[in-house]
Design brief:
Layout: E1 2-10, E2 15-20, E3 31-32, E4 34-37, H1 44-56, E5 66-75, E6 79-89, E7 101-106, H2 119-127, E8 135-139
Parallel strand pairs: 1-6, 5-8
Antiparallel strand pairs: 1-4, 2-3, 2-7, 5-6
Length: about 140
């Protein structure tokens, strides 16, 4: 099973950090949350801290991140997966340490941006203060 994380850091002025993707090919030229695959022994919180630092240059701590949703399913590649969706709130100062460019985007403009499709419902879910424990969603694929 491949374990991955994706995180959304929200600023007090209702902006979210998203990455302009260049890879993998199906995400090229789309905006997505910050994230990637877990390293051996990592938890979702530790993976998010590492990925956020690698992709934005901004250091967070494990206690800054909360898992609000877990998506699981099976696809041709990578096979069986589990995606831990995390949220964080606070100020952020972005750099560009990798080839993919991080940026701040107004959460009220998400519907007008070229985003990976599940962000249209993941971002509002991340902002929902009534989601106190992770929501678990299993993708059973096409019928």
């Amino acid at each position: 099973m491949i374990k991955m994380c994706v995180g959304f850091r929200f600023t007090p002025c209702k902006h979210v950090v998203l990455i302009h993707k260049v890879k993998p090919p199906w995400q090229a030229d789309f905006l997505n949350g910050v994230g990637g695959k877990f390293w051996p022994g990592e938890t979702a919180h530790i993976a998010m801290v590492r990925e956020f630092k690698e992709e934005t240059g901004f250091r967070t701590g494990p206690d800054d991140w909360e898992v609000f949703c877990v998506l699981s399913g099976k696809v041709a590649k990578p096979g069986e997966y589990r995606l831990f969706c995390c949220r964080s709130f606070g100020e952020v100062e972005l750099q560009q340490p990798e080839e993919e460019k991080p940026g701040l985007h107004d959460v009220f403009e998400i519907s007008h941006l070229k985003v990976v499709p599940n962000l249209r419902w993941l971002i509002p879910m991340a902002l929902d203060k009534d989601v106190h424990t992770p929501v678990y969603i299993t993708d059973i694929g096409p019928n």
